[in-house]
Q: What sequence folds into this?
């Protein structure tokens, strides 16, 4: 669905930013509007997506994994195979082209897991732009590999030590940089969050995921999927794959949020499940907040989902009932992570493992004849350390053992009662 | 005419700019902040701005962030902020709250406006709420401030287009907050040349008083800004004095000393 001219999705979205940024947001919205209908821009973006990012990404049928998902046909949209290892590159290439169109030469970004930061550093290297990535200090520790990748690509990585030292604080710091340097600098937001036009623009740059997948599923199965499943932090990969199916009322849309230790424990990042409407980082949406409207620090084993906000269009899709959102705990996600490794030979990002855990539940509910499309939004190379710690092992052999144990004892059917 | 407008007009009548001083509520404690604010008024601050502590202050630099984080850690609530307003407004100085939008929304827009008015507050400054969103039904800050007879101060910036200067000033009441530079709060060695130009641009489209903030910390800078603006807003420099003080009493004296210096500064300006 499309927002109004000021970026409102129903009561959500809009622009809650300092006046100093309004001119830059107007400039960006105008540049994006022009680019959307500009054949030259679209052709250049299309060429980059195919020759540089490796699109279209394939659709893989996960036959052995499906045995653990009620024998539903589980189809994986392989965004993990994109250059830089996740769906983030789709959006970044679009925004970096817009940066050039606006005559700016410096790009800043926030990053949680580091995937968006790596994608931004990559595109800046390609275009010769200065790149500064803000990353919570806590995240620089748990995603050290991606910090190294960004630095190798020529970006400056700034560890953010304010607040909870995670993604939300990185976003605050990036906003502060932007308001100071907005004449020369584009802020490349990595999710469908932030002030208008970001939620709309990032969705449009990501919708290629669903546009491709819809055609691929029709080609492979001869019909539309019964369900489309994605993980939701800020929500860009989810809207990327949902958008093509919004007009197909029979296709169920499921977003899986990071349930952390369990929503009931308060240590989670399930913003729609456990939050309430509020304003954070420039738009109105669901927010994890206390009675005073202070943002509550989120928790997830997945740095990329560890965010106390969510894109405004998701809030609207949730309220309208078009999509439903459910939490997946750290433990459920890691079980699914291990399962995909062992059954399909694919190491997923822990973010994407939340979608896989959701697909297991959805598959069991919909049954053997059903088709479940899963956005495998990223690869798990960056998560090997986290996974090794989680499974209590340090060597590769031990990781394999742990994964094997997970497969031999598929999750109990009885565990399917909650998402 | 509101109490705020009266004070700004009186300063203008004396051929000087008004001095507007900021501290966040709750730092070093709820009572300590109120005492420091009252001391500022006694030492010559004309108008007071009380910051409502917020977890994600994206317009604020490290000085204010530090004080606000401490205020939140010690459990400062929105009701504490309103109680602080009540104490400070009792001095007779027009007292404004400066708040990011979410805490107001969460408290209840009408409830907050009514509570602020009841505490004797003159109005509020909203750094991340522009009139665009303030006028929407699901925000409706314009209606709430009208109903409670509160002044509402929006910001303009060097990047604001003429159209936006016109639009923003049309919706302000009391004064318009001119951000002197592109950036966040914090003291700076010199006042941006953009400040004077911005004030001149605002004056071409509106008669509303223009007060300048961001980066003013010394009497000399206050004098410079006072030569072209109706008010000089000082925040981080006051907060810095409290942060650096060994105890609350010393902090109170330090902000009073600075207030006195700045009050001299706004009186030394070349008349406009």
A:
């Amino acid at each position: 669905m499309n927002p109004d001219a000021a970026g409102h999705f129903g009561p959500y979205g809009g622009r809650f930013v300092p006046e100093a940024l309004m001119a830059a947001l107007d400039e960006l919205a105008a540049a994006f509007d022009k680019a959307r209908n500009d054949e030259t821009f679209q052709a250049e973006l299309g060429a980059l997506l195919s020759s540089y990012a490796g699109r279209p990404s394939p659709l893989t049928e996960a036959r052995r994994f499906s045995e653990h998902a009620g024998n539903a046909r589980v189809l994986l949209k392989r965004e993990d195979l994109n250059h830089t290892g996740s769906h983030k590159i789709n959006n970044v290439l679009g925004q970096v082209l817009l940066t050039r169109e606006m005559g700016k030469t410096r790009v800043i970004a926030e990053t949680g897991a580091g995937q968006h930061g790596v994608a931004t550093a990559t595109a800046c290297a390609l275009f010769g732009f200065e790149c500064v990535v803000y990353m919570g200090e806590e995240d620089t520790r748990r995603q050290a590999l991606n910090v190294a990748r960004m630095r190798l690509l020529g970006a400056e990585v700034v560890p953010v030590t304010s607040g909870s030292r995670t993604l939300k604080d990185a976003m605050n710091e990036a906003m502060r940089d932007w308001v100071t340097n907005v004449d020369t600098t584009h802020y490349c937001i990595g999710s469908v969050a932030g002030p208008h036009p970001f939620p709309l623009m990032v969705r449009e740059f990501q919708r290629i995921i669903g546009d491709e997948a819809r055609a691929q599923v029709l080609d492979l199965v001869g019909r539309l999927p019964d369900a489309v499943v994605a993980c939701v932090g800020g929500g860009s990969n989810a809207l990327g794959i949902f958008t093509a199916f919004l007009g197909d009322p029979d296709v169920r849309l499921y977003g899986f949020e990071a349930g952390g230790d369990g929503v009931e424990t308060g240590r989670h990042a399930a913003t729609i499940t456990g939050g309430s409407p509020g304003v954070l980082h420039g738009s109105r949406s669901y927010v994890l907040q206390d009675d005073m409207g202070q943002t509550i620090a989120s928790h997830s084993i997945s740095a990329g989902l560890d965010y106390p906000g969510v894109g405004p269009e998701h809030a609207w899709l949730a309220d309208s009932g078009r999509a439903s959102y459910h939490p997946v705990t750290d433990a459920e996600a890691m079980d699914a992570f291990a399962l995909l490794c062992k059954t399909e030979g694919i190491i997923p990002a822990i973010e994407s493992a939340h979608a896989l855990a959701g697909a297991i539940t959805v598959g069991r509910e919909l049954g053997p004849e059903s088709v479940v499309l899963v956005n495998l939004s990223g690869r798990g190379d960056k998560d090997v350390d986290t996974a090794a710690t989680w499974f209590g092992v340090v060597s590769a052999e031990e990781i394999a053992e742990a994964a094997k144990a997970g497969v031999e004892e598929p999750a109990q059917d009885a565990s399917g009662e909650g998402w | 005419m509101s109490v705020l407008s009266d004070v700004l007009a009186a300063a203008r009548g004396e051929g000087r700019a008004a001095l507007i001083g900021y501290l966040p509520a709750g730092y070093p404690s709820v009572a300590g902040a109120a005492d420091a604010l009252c001391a500022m008024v006694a030492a010559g601050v004309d108008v007071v701005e009380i910051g409502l502590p917020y977890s994600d202050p994206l317009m604020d630099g490290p000085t204010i962030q530090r004080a606000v984080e401490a205020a939140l850690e010690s459990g400062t609530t929105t009701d504490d902020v309103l109680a602080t307003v009540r104490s400070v407004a009792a001095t007779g100085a027009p007292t404004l709250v400066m708040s990011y939008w979410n805490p107001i929304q969460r408290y209840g827009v009408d409830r907050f406006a009514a509570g602020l008015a009841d505490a004797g507050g003159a109005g509020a400054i909203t750094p991340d709420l522009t009139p665009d969103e303030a006028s929407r039904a699901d925000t409706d800050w314009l209606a709430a401030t009208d109903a409670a007879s509160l002044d509402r101060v929006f910001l303009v910036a060097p990047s604001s287009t003429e159209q936006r200067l016109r639009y923003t000033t049309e919706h302000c009441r009391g004064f318009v907050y001119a951000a002197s530079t592109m950036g966040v709060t914090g003291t700076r060695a010199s006042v941006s040349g953009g400040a004077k130009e911005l004030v001149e641009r605002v004056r071409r489209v509106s008669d509303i008083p223009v007060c300048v903030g961001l980066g003013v910390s010394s009497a000399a800078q206050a004098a410079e800004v006072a030569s072209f603006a109706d008010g000089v807003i000082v925040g981080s420099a006051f907060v810095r004095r409290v942060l650096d003080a060994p105890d609350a009493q010393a902090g109170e004296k330090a902000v009073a000393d600075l207030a006195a210096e700045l009050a001299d500064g706004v009186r030394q300006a070349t008349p406009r």
Q: What stands out?
A: Chain A has a mean pLDDT of 94.
